[in-house]
Amino acid sequence: MLTLPALETCPPPPAVQRILIWHQGALGDLLLAGPALAALSRHYAGARITALGHPERWGLLTLSLPLDEVWDSGEARWSHLFSDGELPPPLRERLARFQLALIFGSRRQATLHDRLRRAGIPAIHWLPSFPETDGEAVATLQARHLAGLGLNYVPGPFQLELGLDPEAELPELPGPGPWMAVAPGSGSLRKNWPLAHFYEVSRALGWEYGLGVVWLAGPAEGEMLPYLGPLAEAQGQLLLVNRPLARVARVLSRSRFYIGNDSGLTHLAAAVAGPEVLALFGPTDPRVWAPLGPHVRTLKAPCHQAPEMEDGTIFCPETCGLKALSPETVLAAAAQVLATPSEVGGG
């Protein structure tokens, strides 16, 4: 049984008008924190939130949370929160308006807590973004920590509000569809299902179910582009490269089906209303990292060579686990999903 740090409970709702949320994590980590953020905004109804992290990622949550501002955590001014000496007066003034700060991270940072308190924030709490026990979902872990602070809730799927007109034109997707979105990359090569398998499955599904295929690639997929471009062109498929996340979210919301690895785009696909999501896991544990939701299905390819690490990840040499996940297995899972009629994307 985990023993929580000795922290006071969160202040009562009437005492909080402004909340600072510190979350510098990747897109998937931020969306995994969605249930905790939604619970926080419900508990402090009427309070406004300022986010400190990656502006483009946080920008996706503008309509889902009562966000006033998003501050870029990459700016040099925040280095004062990790060093000795007096805080600059402008920084103290900026931070002193908050009554509560929540810091998401892999571990509690005593220096950061102390500096924020010295800036005048009376209540500062840490929420873990990495697992502490075997097989516990990140959303459940964060709910457990918030319960220790006095906020009780049952974590559920987090849905992004995009504020889109369903009839509005989307230049990235010519024609009515239906569309299948494919994201073959991730933040780690070890988490990537072989590109040849993605190609085989996308071609078969596109032909069998009349789906237009759109490939999604970002900075992490740079090495794939020399192969992705010709593959997509040969089959009359679309390739979207380095599009803003807000545009990618719109593409996903218009898709009937999505297939991808354990990646930020998979979490984004699960968070927008639209596609059925098939997430492929090899070196990481879907019990911990998979997005929540009735429209999410995961396939796990175990790697028997891989010892589990303390942070809940699994070190897997190359992609041996994912190589064992055959295209036939993925096609069968996709067929079960696509057997259900869908109105998304015109299908």
Structural class call reads alpha/beta
CATH architecture of the largest domain: 3-Layer(aba) Sandwich
CATH class of the largest domain: Alpha Beta
Rg on CA atoms, Å: 21 Å
Order of strands across the main sheet: 8-7-6-9-10-11
The total number of structural domains is 2
**Could you tell me the mean pLDDT?**
89
Number of helices: 13
- Range of helix content: 25-40%
Shape: elongated
* Uncertain segments: 1-7, 306-319, 343-347
CATH-wise, what's the superfamily of the largest domain?
Answer: Glycogen Phosphorylase B
Q: What portion of the residues fall into strands of 2 or more residues?
A: 15-25%
Q: Describe the largest sheet.
A: 6 strands, parallel
- Total count of strands: 11
**Between the first and last Cα atoms, what is the distance in angstroms?**
48 Å
Secondary-structure element sequence?
EHHEHEHEHEHEHEHEHEHEHEHH
Describe this protein's structure.
By secondary structure, this protein is of the alpha/beta class. The chain folds into two domains: 13-148, 3-Layer(aba) Sandwich (Rossmann fold); 179-346, Rossmann fold (3-Layer(aba) Sandwich), CATH 3.40.50. 32% of the residues lie in helices and 18% in strands. It has 13 helices and eleven strands. It has helices spanning 27-32, 34-43, 55-59, 89-95, 110-118, 138-148, 195-209, 225-234, 245-253, 264-271, 286-289, 320-323, 327-338; strands at 18-23, 48-53, 67-72, 100-105, 123-128, 179-183, 212-217, 238-241, 257-261, 276-281, 296-300. Strands 8-7-6-9-10-11 form a six-stranded parallel β-sheet, sandwiched between helices. It has a five-stranded parallel β-sheet with strand order 3-2-1-4-5, with helices on both faces. α3 links the parallel β2 and β3. The longest helix has 15 residues, at 195-209.
